[in-house]
Design brief:
heterodimer, A: alpha+beta, Elongation Factor Tu (Ef-tu), domain 3, six-stranded antiparallel barrel, globular, B: alpha+beta, OB fold (Dihydrolipoamide Acetyltransferase, E2P), six-stranded antiparallel beta sheet, three-stranded antiparallel beta sheet, 4 helices, 19% helix
Chain lengths: 357, 128
């Protein structure tokens, strides 16, 4: 039996093609994944991401606990409302999950992936030890991401007057509580916008009013091509428990300075000292075809692997993220159906704020 | 509801074949297949002059979502390919039975088409 989000009725009414996504019935698209993708780059689209898990943490030692649990340092959250992207590592320095942590007046809010939910919650509980912290999964909440150059103005038109003052001046990568809503200026598309966490009981109404405002419903298909163009990692593809954050373009999230002790720190330092043999890069296929996860990348007689690949609607070409030998130069070859096709190597980011990089 | 055409023959792998008046066979993918694939972004067809074999791979169609092999419903020589698909692969979505055809074959034995399903049998398969 698949789990449903609070928006299942809206998805059905809007003609969504629903698919099994990690045990949840989720919209893949509502007609054309390509059009939904373009709509987010050019105007505004909305995504139901209520399958992700919101975890609230409160208690006198919540901060000390997160210092130990996370590879990035919550001390960087220098005011309530600030957000931080971080890995949660195992002792071997492998990535258990990637997540966003928000600091709020009453504690911290984490948003973790859907497929890793049970594993994450068990791990978090296991690490509590003597820390005075209460961990609570918020299954009473829904998450709607509104993304695109017109996303914030359209969402502001739907938010109630009393909610607006908290939201209109949000800086990038920060959040505010606005009544029952939690509004964050974050996202997973490379565009401006909000991720709104709200009571499940109010999700349908908010979704329908966004649609009336001209925000296009978008499925997880477009979400994937948008995040790929933006060069954003997807757990289980660019990294997992067997992949170090060093080789998943996450080095910038590792706060190693000082004497803070966190899970995986010793392993990270040892990995760096031993030297990193691989790196995550972006690939653009020069010929015709489509790069896909799992294809082999050939570099100077050595091999790498495509971690995510698809057709880029914005570039009109196939693009990919790939974990490859560190000595890769500007070109490589990818094996597609027993043929070697040329690909150009670039930084793992293709499109930001509607512009091709 | 996906469109079906009475005059066509169908494979369980969602290709259609049309026997033309001149005895050649035109091959494409069904409306049901294009809808399931979603936005088609790349089509690989066999080269003109090459031979294809009934039931074997003859090309590939890729959507944003996935790659799918194309199987030939007949054996024979490829006499034409739809060059429009190279620059406009979305034609497969917009016109799967007409402008979105993939390739034409001069069949070795046109009787091979009798192995394929008629519209009614194919409809029963996709309705399952």
């Amino acid at each position: 039996m698949l789990k449903h989000t609070p928006l299942v009725t809206q998805h059905q009414n809007m003609g969504a093609k629903l698919v099994d996504f990690g045990g949840w019935s989720m919209p893949l698209h509502y007609g054309s994944q390509m059009e939904e993708h373009h709509h987010v780059r050019r105007q505004a689209g909305m995504f139901d991401v209520s399958h992700m898990t919101v975890v609230d943490m409160q208690g006198k030692e919540a901060k000390a606990y997160l210092h130990y649990l996370l590879a990035n340092d919550v001390d960087k959250l220098n005011a309530p409302g600030k957000a931080l992207y971080t890995a949660m590592l195992n002792e071997q320095g492998g990535v258990l999950d990637d997540l966003i942590v928000y600091r709020l007046p009453w504690g911290y809010r984490l948003v973790v992936n859907c497929a890793t939910r049970e594993k994450d919650l068990a791990w978090m509980q296991k690490q509590v030890g003597g820390f005075d912290v209460e961990i609570r999964a918020r299954d009473d909440l829904a998450i709607i991401a509104v993304q695109g150059p017109e996303a914030r103005s359209k969402a502001d038109a739907v938010l109630a007057d009393y909610q607006l003052p908290a939201c209109t001046n949000l800086s990038s990568f920060s959040a505010a509580e606005a009544g029952d809503f939690f509004v964050a200026r974050t996202g997973y598309t490379g565009e401006d916008g909000y991720e709104v966490i709200l009571p499940a009981t109010q999700a349908g109404d908010f979704w329908e009013r966004l649609a009336e405002e001209g925000v296009e419903a978008c499925g997880l298909g477009a979400r994937d091509t948008l995040r790929l163009e933006a060069g954003l990692n997807l757990y289980g593809h660019e990294m997992d428990e067997t992949v170090s954050p060093w080789v998943a373009n996450m080095g910038w999230t590792l706060a190693l300075e000082g004497d803070r002790v966190f899970i995986g720190k010793d392993a990270l330092l040892a990995q760096k000292k031993a030297g990193l043999k691989e790196t995550l890069v972006g690939l653009i296929l020069e010929g015709k075809g489509v790069l896909r996860a799992g294809q082999t990348v050939h570099v100077n007689g050595k091999q790498g692997i495509v971690t995510s690949g698809s057709f880029s609607p914005t570039l009109g070409k196939s693009i990919a993220l790939a974990r490859v030998p560190s000595d890769i130069a500007e070109h490589c070859q990818v094996e597609i159906r027993n043929k070697l096709l040329n690909a150009r190597v670039q930084a793992p980011c293709f499109v930001r704020r509607g512009k091709v990089l | 509801m996906s469109e079906l055409r009475e005059e066509l023959k169908y494979l369980s792998s969602h290709e259609w074949a049309r026997l033309e008046d001149d005895g050649t066979v035109t091959i494409g993918i069904t409306d049901h297949a294009q809808a399931a694939l979603g936005d088609v972004v790349y089509v690989e067809v066999p080269e003109v002059g090459s031979t294809v074999t009934m039931g074997e791979e003859a090309g590939v169609v890729e959507s944003v979502k996935a790659a799918s092999d194309i199987f030939s419903p007949v054996s024979g020589e490829v006499i034409a390919v739809n060059e429009q698909l190279e620059d406009a692969p979305e034609t497969v979505n917009n016109s799967p039975y007409d402008d979105g055809w993939f390739f034409k074959v001069q069949p070795d034995n046109v009787q091979e088409l009798e192995n394929a399903m008629d519209a009614e049998a194919y409809k029963a398969q996709i309705d399952e």
